[in-house]
UniProtKB/TrEMBL annotation:
The chain crosses the membrane at residues 62-84, 96-116, 136-161. The lineage of its organism: Eukaryota, Metazoa, Chordata, Craniata, Vertebrata. InterPro entries: PMP-22/EMP/MP20-like, PMP22/EMP/MP20/Claudin, PMP22_EMP_MP20. It is a multi-pass membrane protein. Its main location: membrane. One of its GO terms (cellular component) is plasma membrane. Belongs to the PMP-22/EMP/MP20 family. Keywords: Membrane, Signal, Transmembrane, Transmembrane helix. This is Epithelial membrane protein 3. It comes from Pogonophryne albipinna.
Length: 165
């Protein structure tokens, strides 16, 4: 039981870190490694100065939806972890972690919705950027998709996890 508890805690922390990186880092769409776009900025690498020059992304309804859903996913996963820690020390023996599991499942569904919206509407989201055929999805986009099954898995584990002494 102790190993399962450590596994689910570690899984939760890993998915929370992956969600945070996917939300805040700058690589949802890349062009040739010298230009990329994320949920907040469009950045271009300047060879002369050796630094990234970033401008705010053009605000579209689809981009707002992805931003909001990813932030909600991070918030629900964080709340879920804090509630889990509280339940771990206050819940009576034999109790189930329903609320923690439901928060994790909801975090997984919101991350799924955000990644799906970005997948289906990336042309509208990146409308003023360079030609999309010369670019590809970045690692943050892939992290967002990897988080989805991990969040859902940890949510199901939490729902079935019973507190023992």
């Amino acid at each position: 039981m102790a190993y399962l508890l450590m596994f689910v805690t570690l899984l939760h922390l890993i998915t929370l870190a992956m969600q945070f990186i996917a939300t805040m880092e700058k690589s949802w769409w890349e062009w040739d490694g010298l230009e990329n776009s994320d949920l907040w900025y469009n950045c271009r690498f300047d060879n002369f100065t050796g630094s990234w020059l970033c401008t705010s992304s053009k605000e579209t309804d689809w981009l707002h939806a992805v931003q909001i859903l990813m932030v909600i996913s991070v918030v629900f996963s964080s709340v879920s972890f804090l509630v889990f820690l509280g339940q771990l020390f206050t819940m009576s023996k034999g109790g189930l972690f329903y609320f923690t599991g439901l928060c994790q499942v909801f975090a997984g569904l919101t991350a799924f919705s955000a990644a799906l919206i970005y997948t289906l509407n990336n042309r509208e989201i990146l409308q003023d950027s360079r030609e999309l055929t010369s670019g590809h999805f970045g690692y943050c986009f892939i992290l967002a998709w990897v988080c989805v099954p991990l969040l859902l898995l940890s949510g199901v584990i939490y729902i079935h996890l019973r507190k023992k002494e």
